[in-house]
Design brief:
- There is one protein chain.
- The protein has helices at residues 10-29, 52-61, 74-86, 117-127, 140-156, 174-183, 195-207, 224-228, 232-235, 251-264, 271-289, 295-304, and strands at residues 2-3, 43-44, 67-69, 90-93, 106-108, 131-137, 159-166, 187-191, 217-219, 239-242, 306-307, 316-317, 328-334, 337-344.
- The relative contact order is 0.15.
- The protein contains twelve helices and 14 strands.
- Strand 3 (67-69), helix 3 and strand 4 (90-93) form a beta-alpha-beta unit.
- Helix 1 packs across helix 10 and helix 2 (52-61) runs parallel beside helix 3.
- The strands form four sheets. A seven-stranded mixed β-sheet has the order 7-6-8-9-10-13-14, with helices on both faces. A three-stranded parallel β-sheet has the order 3-4-5, sandwiched between helices. The protein has a two-stranded parallel sheet with strand order 1-2.
- The protein is globular and about 60 Å long.
- By secondary structure, it is α/β, with parallel strands linked by helices.
- It starts with a strand and ends in a 19-residue tail after the last strand.
Length: 363
């Protein structure tokens, strides 16, 4: 496991690790894989992208691991991949992201953009408005998502009236709030990443006199962990897209959340955490079928497995391109939690999606 357990990303990535470790507990409690328990080594990259490659080196060369489960931001993933190849291992990447890549050593356990952003933008157009202002952190995921929104908007009569990018960790938003007031959008699409930036943007937005009734925020990354660090009235009524929300009404999800708290003491659940949980269960199923723990044997086995305990509501499995299947939902913040108000069908993942007409949603 390779996560940021100290530093700016610690609370989010600890919660992702908790999902992975719950799966380890469940597998080992059930007899392990072929009668052998899963063994775990954990590396903390201290929220520093520059240390992620060293983490892979340590885990593979010192701890002798077979597979890496980890990473969160796209910047981290891109730093991990060369080290994964150099160490002849596999990476199970847990979270939804911007797509635009395939790699034989990476299994993508979160959604590709066509599995969530196309339906979401059509929903925004129908329910919130067609003049959008896009705010994001200044790195690859927010910039690629903004371009997707612009391209899709051409087909949905959605106009991007402004874009603004903040350095990771930015906490001052006077300039963008002034520009939002000047451009008069009907909705803000937030791709801000990180607890500090997200909570400060929402808080300053509220203090500036904006709210969900007059100018809603439609987020792609604001989790319930972020909501928990705001006064309830700051996040109230704003919306978010995700492949999972904690209040999904199913026996599988109820059992998952109870076990998460009982075993790990973690009360917050979100999509990236579910991705890590599914990743470990898929690995266990593949390990039971694989001839060895080698990269090629495990990769072949992973393509053929199906995990029916996915709390998202669909069986979890990989396609031949190493991407995975997911539903998507819209949640509205109510009292510091998201309440599901919309659900979209599962779509096959399309890694190379920019400008693709196949993303256009009708009806």
């Amino acid at each position: 496991m390779l996560y940021s357990l100290t530093g700016a990303q610690a609370q989010m990535e600890q919660s992702i690790l908790d999902g992975a470790m719950l799966a380890v507990h469940e597998i080992n409690s059930g007899g392990g894989v072929g009668g052998a328990e899963l063994e775990v080594a954990i590396y903390d990259d201290h929220s520093e992208v520059s240390s992620t490659a060293r983490g892979v080196d340590h885990l593979c060369r010192v701890e002798d691991v077979d597979v890496i489960v980890g990473g969160y931001t796209s910047a981290t993933r891109q730093a991990l991949i060369p080290a994964v190849h150099q160490n002849h291992t596999l990476l199970m990447y847990p979270t939804y992201f911007e797509g635009e890549e395939t790699d034989p050593r990476v299994f993508y356990c979160g959604a590709a953009p066509n599995q969530y952003i196309a339906d979401y933008l059509a929903w925004i157009a129908d329910n919130l408005g067609r003049r959008v202002y896009v705010v994001g952190s200044d790195y690859i995921y927010p910039r690629v998502l903004a371009e997707a929104i612009r391209r899709l908007g051409d087909h949905l009569e959605v106009e991007t009236v402004g874009t603004w990018y903040a350095p990771l960790g930015e906490t001052t938003f006077d300039a963008v709030l002034a520009d939002i007031r000047r451009t008069e959008p009907s909705v803000i699409i937030s791709n801000l990443v990180g607890l500090d930036s997200t909570t400060e943007f929402y808080t300053q937005y509220h203090r500036a006199g904006f709210d969900a009734e007059t100018l809603p925020i439609a987020a792609t990354v604001t989790t319930e962990i972020d909501l928990a660090h705001m006064p309830a009235e700051v996040g109230e009524g704003h919306v978010m897209v995700a492949t999972y929300f904690s209040n999904l009404d199913s026996e599988v999800n109820s059992a998952y959340r109870k076990a998460l708290f009982d075993v790990r003491g973690q009360q917050w659940s979100h999509s990236a955490q579910i991705g890590a949980y599914n990743a470990v269960h898929a690995l266990a199923l593949a390990g039971a079928q694989s001839r060895s723990n080698g990269v090629d044997d495990l990769s072949r086995a992973l393509i053929g497995v199906r995990f029916d305990g996915n709390p998202e509501g669909l069986p979890f499995y990989f396609r031949a391109n190493h991407y995975s299947a997911h539903p998507s939902y819209v949640g509205r913040a109510v009292g510091g939690r998201y309440r599901v108000i919309g659900e979209f069908p599962s779509r096959p993942p399309e890694p190379w999606w920019s400008g693709s007409r196949s993303l256009i949603v009708t009806g």
